[in-house]
Amino acid sequence: MDIDRGCPTGLELAQPQSNAADPRVFVRQNKAGHFSLELLVRGAKCAGCLSKIENGVKAISGIENARLNLSTGRFTADWADTKFDPRQIVQTIVDLGYGAIPFQSQIGNSLQDKEAQNLLLAMTVAGVAMMFVMMFSQPIWMAAIYGEMGEGTRTLFHWLSALVALPAGLYAGMPFFSSAYNSLKKGHTNMDVPISLALILTAALSVYSTAKHGEHAFFDAIVMLEFFLLIGRYLDHRLRQKSRIAAQELMALQAVTAQRIGANGEATSVAVSNIAPNDLLIILPGDRIPVDGIVETGNSQADFSMINGETAPVLIGVGQKLLAGVLNLSGSITLRASAKSDDSFLAEIARLIEAGEQSKSQYVRLADKAAAAYVPLVHGTALLTFLGWLVVGGGFEQAIWNACAVLIITCPCALGLAVPAVQVVASGRLFKAGILVKSGDALERLAAVTHIVFDKTGVLTSGQPKWTNRAEIANEVIEIAVGLARASRHPLARALARAIGPGPAITGANEVPGYGIEATIGGNLVRMGRAEWVGASQTTSNESELWFKNGGATAIRFSFEDSLRADTIATITAIKAMGIKVEVLSGDKLEVVEKTAKEAGIAEFRGAQSPFEKAARLDELANNGAKVMMVGDGLNDAPALARAFVSMAPGAAADASQSAADLVFQGEKLDAVREAIVVGRLSKQRVLENFWFSAIYNLVTVPLAVLGMVTPPIAAIAMSSSSIIVSLNALRLHRYK
User: Fold this and answer.
1) Residue 160 — very low, low, confident or very high, per pLDDT cuts 50/70/90?
2) Is 0.90 surpassed by the pTM of this model?
3) Which residues participate in catalysis according to the annotation?
């Protein structure tokens, strides 16, 4: 029998069906002539499932590649043979014991949400039932000590316990029962098989003992087991669920509709998915570029910060290539589409993010490694216990009870909570420090970080330009300049207005796309913007300055800069003292990146980096053995955040970057990066301590259960106590300073 690692399958899983929608309808062909199929795989929750499915499909003749993303459930297979039947892929996945239907993100989201709801409901039922059963069990326990309860009363209490525990246990145990059944039906086993066996045997023997007016019935052990196991399962699911939405939020940046110019010259609104190469589109101020294309007519300014991280607007004109997601700021332009929406820059970044999430999903936790030998070892020990007691003349009933005790006492509750308990406590500590943990295994990966790669703008720096030469400019000039600035959408103009505060804008001001803003005041033409436009003696424009000129007066320069965060230098110093190497990757100009890096005390830096170059640099570091943490905030950082070993983004980052990151920090302090690494290292220590305790617990308790010195309720108490100890050890994280 093939043994699967403990794969927690939720209540929502339907039986795999081979008569689902014909997958041939959903096959796509790319530019190279290769074919691909995307499926939603249900029931895959661990690295063992991922490996089994990918290897199973890759073994099909003709398949070139197979990838499964555990976070989203999306499975992609590629092939080149035109005669290949994609139904083989679906059938293979079904034969392995999983469900497979054509991928639709809405379906995947609803299944994920339903699984969380069902697990929470099952856990609630088990918890409430456990409290009710304890009301009947505790008097029986006390009577066993003081001998004050008759046989009839004891039997009545046992039946009352059964009335609560059996239906509640049946419902709350469905995640284990359905998973074990589906696994056994396909010729495999998983960790839910011995759990289900222990629950069923304990229930059956308890009913039998109660019917015979026996002294022992262990209905409390049933719901107690389920409650503690469901806690760990629900926590693991919720942490995993938070990491699945990065690509979805990224694609939300892409426009839904666009204005397309028809053959008759009229503009009509069309869905972005219907735009084809060479279509002519009208892009108005405030619109995002819907697909990659080239400017046909018009001039404007565009915000490329989501693409390259630069905050300064860029002048755009005829012949310039624009990428999907760029924000048009000031003027109307016409754009000639050069790609479909599925082939756009945003779509490519979304695919990179999913590839990064997939690689993180393959991270094998220490708990998975420890659990790999659990099923055969527990089954073998319980069977030998049963046979051994029969051989020594203990009787069938005693042999069964002792075997059940072995199954219960070896239940991997402490092992199952070893990681989630630490994750919850560590996440709580980080939350109080303004850091949100979004990925379940991020803390484990934080502990192994050897390199940190920082973006510049919005990470090392505040991300907002600040006016720096106020003392050099007369108040009357400032008053007029700020009035103009309040009428402009330019980031530097907004920074100037922000520095002075609220007030009236100059009426009648006109913004000239790509150049600046002007108005007539007292018969004079007043301009503020680019140096060459206002008529300054300096004929080249600097993207960190605005020029102001009132009529024939001398032009005046307003300077701005994006300064370092207040604690950047101290944080970088502390991180390097921890033995971690640091570098900067930024889309800004090299000279700007160099200046910022040197101020921060970072010797290694690269500028003018595209999103793909950033991701490639992280791959290069990883190939050299580095465990890289990426800290970034822009859309251009999203692929690198997803590709990194672990990633972090500030709270002001783009939604897609926050979704792609494993952690998000609020506030202005970069020290959150150092704090996260410290907590990550402490978390790993606590997890290892919990694993050692779990190992020692089993070494001590299993022999006692085998020798018949432990009854099922004592086994359940011991199992619960081990879970409590693991949780208390995790709470020590709160005390560390």
Assistant:
1) very high
2) no
3) 455
